[in-house]
Design a protein that fits this description.
The chain is an alpha/beta fold and 308 residues long. The chain folds into 2 domains: 221 residues, Rossmann fold, CATH 3.40.50.300; 81 residues, 2-Layer Sandwich (Alpha-Beta Plaits), CATH 3.30.70. Helices cover 32% and strands 27% of the residues. It contains 10 helices and 14 strands. The protein has a 6-stranded mixed β-sheet with strand order 6-7-8-3-9-10, sandwiched between helices. Helix 3 runs parallel beside helix 5.
């Protein structure tokens, strides 16, 4: 697939010597949803700001659809929509005028039809004549997205888009992002809500200390690094795990009513059938069993810990 954003050897060192980005190389494919994960201070926002032309990199190159962000700034910036973490909306302007002005900043001709489409998709149409300062925090966040989409960008950056937004509004925004991808818009999001990346992203990148430590397709990442567990609920407490079951590395819960078996889904044989047979032979019976898989959040935490 063709890359729409190419980042090669990008570094950013601020006055005072703090290195926010360290030799970052990354390609983002046209039409994908790419989730950039990382702890606070990892370099996520700095990376976005460099690509959007808000901050100048110290070294390296960035192109958007083949156009250099430095020498062709106007062209590349017009291709990008940005939803920042903070909410600098025009407090005394109506939602409609805020979006209309944002579209005009990029030299786009007036298009009431497009603005209406954007506002309706974000459930803002009935608020179009409302002054921004009178809106709730969640609605202000929607206005930021509407502003970013007003000039019909091909790439949309969402920097913590649902921070401070309630669950219902968050789900609505996820639906909007999915529809944008269907329309061919490339979406790059940073988020602290791991379920956001798990539900939306095609690929996941993990950044820490200004360095990209992993880039992988989300599904492959879950398969390769995720673990599955089988939990057996016992009708009576088990005093100890029989020695003949030692090879399964079972874990007994504190109340001694649950046995947990962790297995690798990539192996040809999971060992579950053999385990159940040996449990029966040992006279250990169970009421119920359930399986669970490592979440993307657990994988992310493990990766960051390894990079400390």
């Amino acid at each position: 697939m063709q890359a729409i954003i190419s980042i090669d050897g990008l570094s950013k060192t601020y006055d005072g010597g703090f290195k926010a980005l360290d030799n970052v190389s990354l390609e983002i494919d046209r039409g994908e949803i790419f989730a950039l994960l990382g702890p606070n201070g990892a370099g996520k926002t700095t990376l976005i700001n460099v690509v959007c032309g808000i901050v100048n990199g110290t070294a390296g190159t960035v192109t958007v659809d083949g156009h250099d962000i430095g020498s062709e700034y106007r062209h590349t910036r017009a291709m990008i929509g940005l939803v920042p973490q903070e909410m600098p909306t025009e407090s005394f302007e109506t939602v409609w005028n805020t979006c209309r002005f944002s579209r005009g900043l990029f030299g786009k001709p007036a298009s009431p039809e497009h603005l209406e489409k954007v506002l309706r998709s974000l459930s803002l149409w009935d608020k179009k004549d409302t002054i921004s300062m009178q809106l709730s925090g969640g609605m202000k966040r929607r206005v930021l997205i509407a502003k970013a989409l007003a000039h019909e960008p091909e790439v949309l950056f969402l920097d913590e888009p649902t921070a401070g937004v309630d669950v219902e509004l968050r789900q609505d925004m996820w639906n909007v992002v999915s529809k944008l991808r269907e329309q061919g818009v490339t979406v790059i999001l940073t988020t602290h809500y791991i379920e956001e990346a798990e539900q939306l992203a095609d690929r996941v990148g993990v950044i820490n200390h200004g360095e990209i430590i992993l880039i992988e397709e989300k599904d492959k990442l879950m398969r390769d690094l995720g673990k599955k567990q089988l939990v057996l609920n016992l009708p009576t407490a088990l005093a100890e795990i029989p020695s003949q079951l030692a090879s399964y590395h079972l874990e007994l819960s504190d109340d001694r009513h649950d046995l947990t078996y962790t297995y690798d889904t990539k192996r040809e044989r999971t060992g579950i059938t053999a385990l159940l047979g040996e449990l029966n032979a040992a006279g250990i019976h169970f009421n119920d069993l359930q399986t669970s898989q490592t979440s993307l959040e657990e994988i992310f935490v493990d990766l960051v810990k390894k990079d400390q």
